[in-house]
Amino acid sequence: MAKASNYTSKQPDENGVIHWSEDENKIWSELVARQLACIEGKACNEYLEGLKKINLPSDRIPQLSELNEVLEKTTGWQVAPVPALIDFDEFFRLLANKQFPVATFIRTREEFDYLQEPDIFHEIFGHCAMLTNPAFAEFTHKYGQLGYAAEKKDRVYLARLYWFTVEFGLMQTDQGLRIYGGGILSSPGETQYVYSDKPEINAMNVLDVLRTPYRIDIMQPVYYTINSINDLFDISQMDIMSLVSKAKELGLHEPKFPPKEKLAS
């Protein structure tokens, strides 16, 4: 089940419009300005092209209908408003139907730099530009279909594939290392960290990815790179579930991070 969140998503009115406060729009504006400066020379071309297509307003939070117009035209996708946290079942169901879940709340100033659950800034700034790309969109759609049909114990393996691509994916290009994962693109800290000498950066190997543990509350100790966005389309055509079976047989790689400290009861 979805865990509890400190945030509550805003409900659209009868016309599908979400009413954001002046302060919420200001937070959006500051987040966008900061992150655009941060990803300069670091985001992949496909992301930058997508950003032009979705034409994000910098002074206010966009309405979902504005994004849907562009996504529908480019790849047939839509964004769907959801509560702050949803369970795996609903997450996969939405992706399987070409609907990208967007939690309709924005972080507070107290959590301006980092929050654990994905807010509307992360979902829209981090992911929506990439959803205008056909290869990325097809990969995400296929992932949703597989996940929706999969058993619970297999979904944990599939989650790793999503984590190391859609959320934290990197690409080797002629211009050098570039980012396409929304978890990095929407985080100033992680964007800088990727280019430090701290993380281990490996070439994409789907079986390895399915066997790589991760934690959501730390900088990633390991990333995987593709050579082109079309690699994601190629992965979407693989027999991923047979690779999941193989990953289960082989077991997980040793984590490259300490275990999470348990809170004293």
Automatic annotation (TrEMBL):
EC annotation from Swiss-Prot or TrEMBL: 1.14.16.1
Domain of life: Bacteria
Keywords: Iron, Metal-binding, Monooxygenase, Oxidoreductase, Phenylalanine catabolism
Cofactor(s) the record lists: Fe(2+)
Pathway: Amino-acid degradation; L-phenylalanine degradation; acetoacetate and fumarate from L-phenylalanine: step 1/6
Keyword Lipid metabolism belongs to the record: no
Catalytic activity: (6R)-L-erythro-5,6,7,8-tetrahydrobiopterin + L-phenylalanine + O2 = (4aS,6R)-4a-hydroxy-L-erythro-5,6,7,8-tetrahydrobiopterin + L-tyrosine
Protein residues bound to Fe cation: 122, 127, 167
Record field: transmembrane: none
GO biological process: L-phenylalanine catabolic process
NCBIfam families: Phe4hydrox_mono, PRK11913.1-2
Protein name as it appears in the record: Phenylalanine-4-hydroxylase
Biological classification of the source: Bacteria, Pseudomonadati, Pseudomonadota, Gammaproteobacteria, Alteromonadales
